[in-house]
Amino acid sequence: MQAHQIDQLKNWLAKETTMPVEQLETHISWVLLTDSLAYKIKKPVRYQFLDFTDQEVRHDLCRRELALNQRLSPDVYLAVSPIVNKEGSVCIGSEGEVVDYAVVMKRLDNEYLLNHQLAYGHVTVPSVQKLAIKLAGFHMASPPTHAPVDIERKKADFLEILEQRDWMSIHLGTEWQSKVQEWTRLAHWVIDHFARRMLERMEQGFQRDGHGDLHSGNIFMYEDNPVIFDCLEYDEAYRRIDVLNEIAFLCIDMDLYQQPQLRKAFMEAYNEQFQVIHTQEDVILFKYYCLHRACTRLKVEILKARADAMHVDETSAAQYAQLTDTYADQLQTLLEHYIHYERDVAIPSPVAGK
User: Fold this and answer.
1) Distance between CA atoms of residues 232 and 285, nearest Å
2) Are 297 and 321 in contact (CB under 8 A)?
3) Fewer Cβ in 10 A, N or C end of the chain?
4) Do 182 and 289 share a domain, yes or no?
5) What is the average per-residue pLDDT within 51-66?
6) Is the pLDDT of residue 9 over 60?
7) Same structural domain for residues 52 and 146?
8) Within this chain, do residues 158 and 43 fall inside the same structural domain, yes or no?
9) End-to-end CA, the chain
């Protein structure tokens, strides 16, 4: 579909519902919101990490998105509906030339999004405990996967932040030039020296087919039943990861909003249901995953700021830079403790000169 056809579909939905229709847009999709439903349409775009240019591929991915998300939110993800060209305009229906497909969802209230609730300070310990129990149950029910641990890809993820050093130096301060190098050196050391434990955890069943994009903007925080949505469908490698990696993405948001008591309550409740931390090495890996997730979010915020050079907002990037640096310091402390007390680990210090 093209932008003008989205306008036609929006007008048709407004006539059908006799209500205004809202439109949201990301770099890969359009979302049309009626009073009760949401229609998500994939854009025919190609990026380095995805290719939506073929209509049948988009159809297949819509069906996959529906199936994956019904694992967690069957009452929210309702159907995949064809979008047809009928009498020179487009609409939802079965008669006419199919031009694309929409994932049809129940519309929920954005006020209950977890990132909003964290910002308002409205999230309670019991509510994150319910979320932890739901996620632990989901992960336990998901089949273990056995994709090899891709060491080089993990290292490449950290090399990408090095490309943003100049922007950080100009907009956040010159001290960030050296800090980014320290983060990368520290992360690469952990990857090299804990690859064996990463592999063991995969063999022990801790690598599952999970959500793939588990941040606080993809969770509606209803007190009685948290709703988790928007599983990542277009690349299974992002979903088939260690569950510690998956939940780290969510935990960094609790730290970002300076509510570590929620992160602690979440982790305790999750680990009580599904014990995923067994050794000191696992504690180190969890902190490494927090560092990785925070660094990735920092890179995304920098790219957003770069895209709008006329109105550069450095606030989010500065917050994620500070959070990433905090995780690096915590990881360094854990490693120093580990090296000191694990007498059988004859390995040198990872960050000489820090």
Assistant:
1) 23
2) no
3) C
4) yes
5) 97
6) yes
7) no
8) no
9) 52
Please state the rounded mean pLDDT for residues 30-34: 97
Verify that 316 and 174 share a domain, yes or no: yes
Give yes or no: residues 120 and 81 share one domain.
no
**Domain final residue pick, 63, 81, 107:** 107
pLDDT tens string 240-273:
999 999 999 999 999 999 999 999 999 999 999 9
Q: Could you report the per-residue pLDDT of 132-172, keeping only the tens digit for each?
A: 999 999 999 999 999 888 999 999 989 989 999 999 999 99
Place of tokens 């907009």: 171
| Arithmetic mean of pLDDT, 16-34 | 95
d(CA 183, CA 236) in angstroms, rounded, equals: 27
- Choose among 139, 177, 157: nearest CA to 274: 139
pLDDT digits (tens, 9 = 90+) for 87-143: 888 999 988 899 999 999 999 999 999 999 999 999 999 999 999 999 999 999 999
What is the pLDDT at residue 349? 44
What does the alpha-carbon distance between residue 117 and residue 124 come to, in Å, rounded to a whole number?
Answer: 10
Q: How many CB atoms lie within 10 A of CB 62?
A: 23
Counting the structural domains of the chain, the total is 2
- The answer to whether residues 67 and 194 belong to one domain is no
Boundary-marking domain end, from 107, 142, 163: 107
Is 85 in the same domain as 140?
A: no
Residue ranges making up the domain that contains 62: 3-107
Residues 181 and 145 in one domain: yes
CA dist 74 and 125 (Å) reads 26
What is the distance between the alpha carbons of residues 230 and 219, in angstroms, rounded to a whole number?
9
Are the C-beta atoms of residues 179 and 173 closer than 8 Å to each other?
A: no
Residue labelled with tokens 């305009």: 89
